[in-house]
Design brief:
This protein is an all-beta fold. 2% of the residues lie in helices and 39% in strands. The chain contains three helices and 66 strands. The strands form 21 sheets. Strands 38, 39, 40, 41, 42 and 43 form a six-stranded antiparallel beta sheet that branches. Strand 44 and strand 45 form a beta hairpin. The longest helix is centred in the middle third of the chain and has 9 residues, at 395-403. The protein is elongated, with a radius of gyration of 29 Å.
Length: 826
């Protein structure tokens, strides 16, 4: 959307962002997530008072990923009456808060099923809560020719149609909505497009629902009748312009709905007005008429749609309505950016910036039909030079050169790793295509915090997880094996006690990568959703794995480990989960098995494993913490615990093959278990979707905590917008970070010569928020370089932060008779 301050761009996939760019395409600021100094002004946000003092804004949806309640990533609200509860839908995580933007003056609307409203600088609007009413319409009039009589015809049917275009009247009073095109939806093996030919209107403030401003339910061609209403806009006098796509015209109405005039325009898809002169600008491209096929992925019918007989991208300039709305000039922009048809063309978008002289065009074209990876232009800025249109900025290409990987991580599953033999380097792992439900990875993004540069590193095989040892070796974790490599050459460093294997790897699909292993350290394991790996300062390896059998399979002779049939120990109260049972095993640096099933009875899921120099085990378990029988207010968080191997176990109140003969005479320590022998507990960590008894039981975007070489635990507490730091005894030392978007927090030191934060990927004009200056929106994973750096995956702000670590007082002393090691690391 073009605004008085620049161009506003919305992106959303689970996490939502609204960013402002200046007229030359440079990033200016983030509007949403809201700036920390504007948050209090946004009415309608739910706040929670924590027991230890801070007041935090609540992200009330199931995945706790957004403050905006307008989209299908927030259809299932869980926070009510001071705690999280209720159901959820795992498919909503990959949705977004909106599919349309509208702006007038400083008023901004993000529109989906509902609409969110705030100012263009991220503040609240006086007299209006941020969460507006429902704007989607029920699918009550199926498209003739392919009758979908009721939503009950198929589970894939969408029950509501969302507007794809909107406009705000110049006085800020009215919000107009149109382009109610919905699809694909499926029924009995077919896919369809649902269209509703209408323009709706509602007050911008308040909670009144939309009412019909102009509509035609039969797709007519007379005045005031529409055949695919594709866009809506307002001029300075409040007149309403509707792009009547299949009727090849723009229809104009007075604010009271009276028809004024029809302006001929070929296949209009977008209409805009000059901010001062009310001159008319019309974009044309093909929109879908219908789509049909067998609806199954990969079949031609799934991607073939019939477009509206127009395969060009064109901009036409008309004089103002008061000057006769005469066509002035038409520009064919097809050859300028290579506009390509997609399955629907509903993802395409374009706006004209009339505040630039001469005018400029911002356009977005997604991947073409059949593309398996993002391709094409993406977001581009077009400008006129000597009367010819050219690409002034290709923001997709610029982003690809800067950050290498453009896709957000699949299922928002991102993990970070630090090699202690390297200074200021973090490795980012994200699910690779073709792996088992996106749970493995075969590449790493190597990011240098001192230069801001990134490059891709290919691993020898698809792995489930990994860790670095103090001597700089990479330990790659498969489902039942650890393989050790020298990352300088990626040559294997065989274990003394290991197993040879051909075509080893954690992936199961064609896109996976495998390699022959000379000698890998084996352990009992299988299944998926494993719990992590860590190498201690002494070289011991703690690895969590899912042993993927239930109690009925314990006698299976196929379950062989280390030359013998492996059977999970049973005892009263030991529960088995749907994927199997989590077990922690301990190996030494030579690959010998020191402990098998070191902490029996673990719950179904763990989100990080650590082992300290003494051999004690640290785990982030999925169940929420309970204190004196009271559950932590956010039951979708986990608990960090410390154990001595062989001296602890867990007991489940129900669901165990061998039930408890008598329950312990004390309240449970965890939501779903009693814990015997734990040194300490620390709750409220990460996000644990499986804790929702009445929810979708999804935990794909799970977190990762880490311990350092002093056995300090670094725990992402995303609902608190910080990372907790615990000592070896579980005492909280400090918390790093507070609520903030990417502009919040001034770097305490600049590592480039010019002192420019942009050189390291930061924003051009950061705001001070005090304290440690670390602004976070959704920290989900961390990595630690002991006493030097903490790296934080802040998915809510789409970035990785490098945080300098230090002590309150430091002093360096020269050591006599010790050779100077220069810049070499120990």
């Amino acid at each position: 959307a073009a605004s008085q301050d620049g161009i506003l761009v919305f992106t959303g996939r689970g996490f939502d962002h609204v960013r402002l760019f200046d007229r030359d395409g440079n990033y200016a600021r983030t509007v949403y997530p809201f700036p920390s100094d504007k948050l209090d002004s946004v009415s309608g946000i739910t706040w929670h008072e924590l027991p230890d003092g801070p007041r935090i804004p609540i992200k009330p949806n199931y995945y706790q990923s957004t403050l905006l309640m307008s989209g299908h990533n927030a259809e299932n609200i869980r926070y009510r009456e001071g705690r999280y509860r209720g159901g959820g839908n795992q498919n909503t995580f990959f949705g977004a808060a909106g599919e349309a933007l509208a702006v007038s003056g400083n008023r901004l609307a993000v529109i989906g099923h509902r609409f969110s409203r705030f100012t263009t600088d991220g503040g609240g609007i006086e007299g209006a809560v941020a969460h507006g009413p429902e704007v989607a319409l029920p699918l009550d009039k199926p498209w003739t020719g392919h009758h979908l009589e009721t939503p009950a015809q198929g589970s894939a049917l969408r029950t509501r149609s969302r507007p794809k275009r909107a406009a705000i009247s110049p006085d800020g009073r009215w919000l107009y909505l149109t382009a109610y095109h919905e699809g694909p939806v499926g029924s009995r093996g077919r896919v369809f497009w649902h269209r509703q030919y209408r323009v709706m209107r509602m007050p911008f403030a308040g909670d009144e629902p939309p009412t019909v401003f102009a509509a035609d339910y039969d797709g007519g061609d007379g005045p005031g009748r529409f055949n695919m209403s594709a866009d809506v806009a307002c001029d300075s006098k409040g007149r309403v312009y509707v792009a009547d796509h299949m009727n090849d015209r723009i229809q104009v109405f007075d604010a009271d709905g009276t028809f004024v005039k029809s302006v001929a325009a070929k296949r209009p898809a977008r209409v805009a007005l000059h901010h001062e002169t009310d001159e008319i600008f019309v974009f044309s491209w093909g929109l879908p008429l219908h789509m049909q096929g067998d609806g199954r992925r990969g079949r031609p019918g799934h991607v073939n749609s019939k477009l509206s007989a127009y395969n060009r991208f064109q901009l036409t300039h008309f004089s103002s309505l008061d000057d006769g709305a005469r066509e002035q000039v038409s520009w064919d922009l097809q050859s300028v950016i290579g506009w390509q048809d997609t399955r629907a063309n509903l993802e395409h978008d374009a706006v004209v910036d009339t505040r630039s002289d001469p005018i400029r065009v911002w356009a977005y074209a997604p991947s073409p039909v059949g593309a398996r990876r993002p391709s094409g232009r993406g977001l581009v800025l077009l400008a006129q030079e000597n009367g010819e249109w050219t690409v002034k900025r290709d923001l997709r290409d610029e982003a690809a050169r800067a950050i290498v990987r453009l896709n957000p991580p699949d299922r928002f599953r991102q993990r970070l790793y630090v090699n202690p033999a390297e200074d200021g380097i973090v490795y980012v792992a994200e699910p690779s295509g073709g792996t088992d439900v996106g749970m493995g990875f075969k590449n790493l993004l190597r990011m240098d915090a001192k230069t801001g540069r990134s490059r891709m590193v290919e691993l020898p095989m698809t792995v489930e997880d990994m860790a670095f040892s103090p001597d700089g070796f990479a330990y790659l974790k498969l489902r039942d094996m650890v393989v050790r490599y020298d990352p300088a050459t990626w040559r294997e460093v065989p274990f003394d006690y290991g197993e040879e294997r051909r075509n080893a790897g954690a992936g199961v699909h064609s896109g996976s990568r495998s390699a022959n292993v000379i000698s890998g350290a084996v352990f009992p394991g299988g299944g998926r959703h494993h719990g992590g790996i860590h190498v201690s300062a002494g070289g011991h390896i703690a690895v969590s794995a899912v042993y993927g059998v239930g109690p009925e399979s314990r006698r299976s002779e196929a379950q062989v480990h280390d030359g013998a049939v492996y059977r999970t120990r049973l005892y009263p109260g030991r529960r088995f989960g749907g994927h199997g049972v989590i077990q922690v095993h301990v190996l030494d640096r030579h690959g010998r098995q020191l402990r098998v099933d070191a902490v029996p009875g673990l719950t179904q899921h763990a989100y990080g494993t650590g082992i300290d120099a003494r051999g004690d085990i640290y785990l982030l378990e999925a169940p929420a913490r309970m204190i004196a029988g009271e559950l932590y207010f956010n039951d979708l968080t986990g608990t960090v615990m410390k154990f001595t191997p062989g001296q602890a176990r867990m007991l489940a109140p129900s669901g165990a093959p061998v039930p408890l003969t008598a329950e312990p005479a004390r309240p449970r320590e965890l939501q779903s278990a009693w814990v015997e022998g734990a040194h300490w507990f620390y709750g409220g960590v990460g996000w644990s979707g499986f804790n929702a008894a009445d929810g979708p039981q999804c935990h794909c975007p799970n977190p990762r905590f880490k311990i350092d070489y002093f056995a300090r635990s670094f725990t992402p507490e995303h609902h608190r917008f910080n990372v907790g730091v615990l000592d070896a005894n579980g005492n909280l030392i400090l918390r790093v970070g507070r609520y903030g978007n990417v502009d919040d927090g001034v770097p305490t030191e600049h590592e480039d010569a010019a002192g420019d934060p942009r050189a390291l990927g930061g924003p051009p004009n950061p705001r001070s928020i005090g304290g440690d200056e670390v602004g976070l929106f959704s920290p989900r994973a961390v990595a630690i370089d002991t006493d030097r750096r903490l790296f934080i995956s802040d998915l809510g702000n789409a970035r990785v932060l490098s945080v300098k670590l230090g002590y309150h007082a430091e002093e360096s002393l020269p050591l006599r008779n010790v050779p100077d090691a220069g810049a070499k690391r120990p």
